[in-house]
Design goal:
GO terms for molecular function: serine-type D-Ala-D-Ala carboxypeptidase activity. This is D-alanyl-D-alanine carboxypeptidase/D-alanyl-D-alanine-endopeptidase. It comes from Streptomyces kunmingensis. About 35% of the residues lie in helices and about 15% in strands. With about 500 residues, the protein is of the alpha+beta class. The chain has three domains: about 90 residues, no CATH class; about 220 residues, DD-peptidase/beta-lactamase superfamily (Beta-lactamase, 3-Layer(aba) Sandwich); about 150 residues, D-tyrosyl-trna(Tyr) Deacylase, Chain: A. The strands form three sheets. A five-stranded antiparallel sheet has the order 2-1-12-11-10, with helices on both faces. The radius of gyration is 24 Å and the shape is elongated.
C-alpha cells in the first residue's frame, strides 16, 4: 500500500462513504451502511495490519463493529458483547452472512444492460469471458462464455486455496523440526514445507521462527551435554523437480520443503526479489549460524542434505500460522511461494505424489468433491505462473460462492483474504481512475496478470445490499494497464448496480 498517513486514508474513506450515503439516501439505505462499513474496513486494514494472532483478518472484526454502529450487524445477544466493542464482533462466517439475504438479487436483464457494453471494450483483448453469481442462492445471474477455460494467471490461487482448506483444514499448521541421532552425534533439520518460516528478527506475521527453533534445539542439546554435532537438512517431503516449469524467476523460489523467508536475498516480504540458488541449503547454513550463537558447534563444514535414521528423536519444532492465515496472506499479496507450498500440502493430505503433477491432481480431486465445474481445467501449478493452467469463469465464481456458503466456514479465508480495492494487496494501487473509483473499498478481488492475460475475480455487495461474486477473464489485451482499468470498471459497475 502506498505510504499514506492515517488521516489521509480516513479523509479518502470519508469522501467515498459520503458519496455512497448521499447516493443511497432515498432508496438504498442498506447499501449505504454496507459501504460505510467496508470503507472503514479498508482503513483499518491499511493502518493496523490485516491479520490478528489467530489468523483471522482484523478487518472482519472491525467491519462487523462498524456495521453494528450503523445498524447493519446482528450479534444475536452473544455473551460478553457490548455496543461499540470490536473485540466482541462476530467472526467471518457471521459477518459474511449478513449482506443480501433479505433483499432481492439483480435481474439477468438489468445486469446484461450494464455489463454487455463494457465487455465490448477493445482494451479487453480478443477473448473475454464473464460470470456473476448470487452468493446467497448460487444462481448465475450473468454469463458470457462462462464455461470456456482460459489461462487464469494468479486467480488460480483461489482454486489452490479452496483445495488446500478442503484437504488439510483451516487449522492445519506446518511443522519444521529438528531430530537428533544421539549415538551418531547427528542433528537433522527437517523441512515440512512451511513457506512462511523466517530467520529474521522482525516477524510481523507471527510466522514460525528459525531463531526460535535454534533456541529450543540448542537448549535441548546442552541439557543432554552435547555441544558439538554434525548438522544435516532433510527436504525429502517433496519430490520431483524443484524449479518451476517457467524456470528460475524472481517471482518464485525453488519449491522445496525447507526454506526461510522464501529464499529471498533481500529484506522484502512480498513481490519479486532475488532468490537463493538453493533455499534449503541457505536455510540450513543460517540455522548452523544460529546454533553457533548458542555455543553449539557444527562439524564438517556446511550442512549437507540427508535424512535422520529410525533411531532419531524429535527434540524441537516450530509451527506455521494456521492454514487459513496462509491462505489470506497468499491471496492478499498474490504470494507465489505460499501458493506452490499449499498445492504441495494439498497433495500430501490427499495422498498424491508430492510434486507438480501430484499437486495438480490433488487440487482437481479436492474441487471435484465439492462438485465444482471442472470442464476444461488444468492445474499445472498452484500459483498461476504457468500459462498452460486453464480455468473457467464458472469455476472461479463457483469457488467464491462455495466459500460464502454458511455451511462452509472452513473456506471463509478465501473471501477474507481478497484484496480490498484501492487499499490492500494487489489492488492497493488500482481503482484510482474516476471511471472505476466508485468501487474503492467495495470490491474485494483476486487479480491475475501475465503478458496478454488479465483476470479479476471476487465479491461485491451491490447497491441493494446483495452479496454477489464475479469473474472476468481476458486474453490478447493490447496493454495491461488499460485492460486492468476495464476489469476494474466492470467490477465497480456490479458494485454500483441496483439492477432490478
Amino acid at each position: 500500500m502506498p505510504e499514506l498517513k492515517a488521516s489521509q486514508l480516513l479523509t479518502s474513506a470519508a469522501k467515498t462513504a459520503a458519496t455512497w450515503v448521499a447516493r443511497s439516501r432515498t432508496k438504498h439505505v442498506t447499501a449505504g451502511a454496507t459501504a460505510v462499513g467496508l470503507v472503514l474496513t479498508a482503513v483499518v486494514v491499511a493502518t493496523t495490519g490485516p491479520w490478528d494472532a489467530s489468523g483471522q483478518r482484523k478487518a472482519e472484526a472491525h467491519r462487523a463493529a462498524s456495521q453494528e454502529a450503523a445498524g447493519g450487524a446482528d450479534h444475536d445477544g452473544a455473551p460478553g458483547t457490548r455496543p461499540g466493542a470490536p473485540a466482541a464482533a462476530p467472526r467471518a462466517p457471521a459477518v459474511l452472512a449478513a449482506p443480501g439475504a433479505t433483499v432481492p438479487a439483480p435481474t439477468r436483464e438489468a445486469l446484461a444492460d450494464v455489463l454487455d457494453p463494457l465487455l465490448k471494450d477493445p482494451s479487453l483483448g480478443t477473448r473475454r469471458t464473464a460470470a456473476v453469481v448470487d452468493a446467497v442462492t448460487g444462481e448465475r445471474l450473468y454469463g458470457k462464455s462462462a464455461g470456456d477455460a482460459l489461462t487464469p494467471a494468479s486467480t488460480i490461487k483461489l482454486a489452490t486455496a479452496v483445495a488446500a482448506l478442503t484437504a488439510a483444514g483451516p487449522d492445519h499448521r506446518i511443522a519444521t523440526r529438528t531430530r537428533l541421532e544421539k549415538d551418531a552425534g547427528k542433528l537433522v533439520l527437517v523441512g515440512g514445507g512451511d513457506p512462511t518460516l523466517t530467520a529474521r528478527q522482525k516477524n510481523p506475521y507471527g510466522a514460525a521462527s528459525l531463531r526460535t527453533l535454534a533456541d529450543e534445539t540448542a537448549a535441548s542439546l546442552k541439557k543432554s551435554g552435547t555441544t558439538e554435532i554434525t548438522l544435516a537438512y532433510d527436504t525429502s517431503l517433496y519430490s520431483g523437480p524443484k524449479t518451476h516449469p517457467i524456470g528460475p524467476n524472481e517471482n518464485l523460489a525453488q519449491v522445496t520443503a525447507l526454506m526461510a523467508d522464501e529464499g529471498r536475498t533481500d529484506d522484502s516480504n512480498s513481490g519479486p526479489a532475488p532468490r537463493a540458488a538453493d533455499p534449503a541449503a541457505s536455510a540450513a547454513r543460517k540455522f548452523a549460524d544460529l546454533l553457533h550463537d548458542h555455543g553449539i558447534r557444527t562439524k564438517g563444514g556446511d550442512p549437507q542434505a540427508g535424512k535422520a535414521s529410525g533411531k532419531a528423536e524429535d527434540i524441537a519444532k516450530v509451527e506455521s500460522p494456521p492454514l487459513s492465515a496462509l491462505v489470506e496472506r497468499m491471496l492478499t499479496h498474490s504470494d507465489n511461494d505460499i501458493a506452490e507450498a499449499l498445492a504441495r500440502q494439498t497433495a500430501v493430505a490427499a495422498g498424491e505424489s508430492h510434486d507438480f503433477d501430484g499437486a495438480g491432481k490433488a487440487v482437481h480431486q479436492q474441487l471435484g468433491t465439492l462438485r465444482l465445474p471442472l470442464a476444461g481445467t488444468r492445474f499445472a501449478d498452484g500459483s498461476g505462473l504457468d500459462r498452460t493452467d486453464k480455468i473457467s469463469a464458472d469455476l472461479l465464481t463457483g469457488l467464491l460462492a462455495k466459500a460464502a456458503e454458511p455451511g462452509r466456514p472452513e473456506l471463509r479465508a478465501v473471501l477474507t483474504g481478497l484484496p480490498v480495492a484501492g487499499f490492500t494487496g494487489t489492488l492497493s494501487s488500482r481503482y484510482s481512475d474516476e471511471a472505476d473509483a466508485s468501487g474503492t473499498g467495495l470490491v474485494r478481488a483476486k487479480t491475475g496478470t501475465l503478458t496478454g492475460v488479465n483476470t479479476l475475480a471476487g465479491s461485491v455487495v451491490d447497491a441493494d445490499g446483495r452479496l454477489l461474486v464475479f469473474a472476468f477473464m481476458t486474453q490478447g489485451a493490447p496493454g495491461p494497464q488499460t485492460a486492468q482499468a476495464s476489469l476494474d470498471r466492470l467490477a465497480s459497475s456490479v458494485a454500483n448496480c441496483g439492477c432490478r
